[in-house]
Amino acid sequence: MERPLVSVCITTYNHASYIGRAIESVQRQRVAGTIEIIIGDDYSQDETLSIIERYAAEDSRIRVLRSEQNRGMHHNYRRTLLAARGEWVALCDGDDFWSDDEKLARQLEALRANPDAGMCCTRSYRFYEGKEAERWLYPTERLYTDFEHLLLNNTVENITAVARRELIEQYYAEIEPERHTEWLTDDAPMWIWFAKRSKIIALDHPTATHRLLSESQSQSTDYHRRIAFCDSTAAIAIFMARHFGEPKHIARLKRQRMNTALWVLSIYGTIGEYCSRWWRELRQSPRQILNVAGYGLLVKRLLGLQRKKRKTD
User: Fold this and answer.
1) What is the pTM of this model?
2) What pLDDT shows up at residue 1?
3) Is the dihedral of CA 236, 143, 78, 41 positive or negative?
4) Mind giving me the DSSP string for 125-170?
5) Which residues of the chain have a pLDDT value below 70?
6) Which domains does the chain have, with CATH numbers?
7) Cα separation of 25 and 91, whole Å?
8) What integer pLDDT is reported at residue 197 of this predicted model?
9) Which residues, including other chains, have CB under 8 Å from residue 273's CB and lie 6 or more apart?
10) Angle CA(274)–CA(276)–CA(278) in degrees, nearest 5?
């Protein structure tokens, strides 16, 4: 069997409303070279799998990875990527889609022109579910490709990445992300790792669209879940800083983690939650006592409660 040039990996779970659009956006790619489409379904309980199988029956490039039980996002992501046979691996989540029919062609051209590069990413569009007409470009400023910036602000979107398969395999062997159950995202640590192990190319052209659902791993109306996701991204960054022997970034990462959590709690949380989190940060990093954000956000919270009390009197 001929080895494909690109393996497109789609991970999905209960995406019946979206999976067809994701698959078709990959099928429309105009690229010189063979591609395979690997779809990992994590035991969906809606019509996702039957939709996938209808597409697979009509397109021999599609390979379906089924599950007999729900194993979770991390397992599904890993097994789908490691099933790839292509020289390059491209990714698309089942609720997102590619919006440029020449996405792969653009990125492969850039990678061929930079043989020392191990990954290429692009800008993307984002929109809240049900409001596609109000989409916006991500990131709003610039795409980062260096290790230090990705630690603090990871601007690589999973759906825009095309990466060398051998490096993905090396990442899993070296980092063993399955051991880090506290990490709530799979792609963020991989792209930070790539910034150290290879060159990353960023194209300013938007090629894909990320759908922001009201409830997802990175998006939630529950402020506790939002804080947990931010804590997870901080834990990933701190781990990578230590793994690559760059502890100089850790104090800044801890300060960023604290400021994010306290900012959310200053708006949605109780005074008790705010003080508890502040104390937790101080115990872990006593230098945070000098972080003026903690005091300022507490004053903001107290003033907010005072204004609310006046309105109810």
Assistant:
1) 0.92
2) 60
3) positive
4) EEEETT-GGG-EEESSS----SHHHHHH-----GGG-EEEHHHHHH
5) 1, 214-220, 304-313
6) 6-212 (3.90.550.10), 246-312 (no CATH)
7) 12
8) 97
9) 265
10) 70
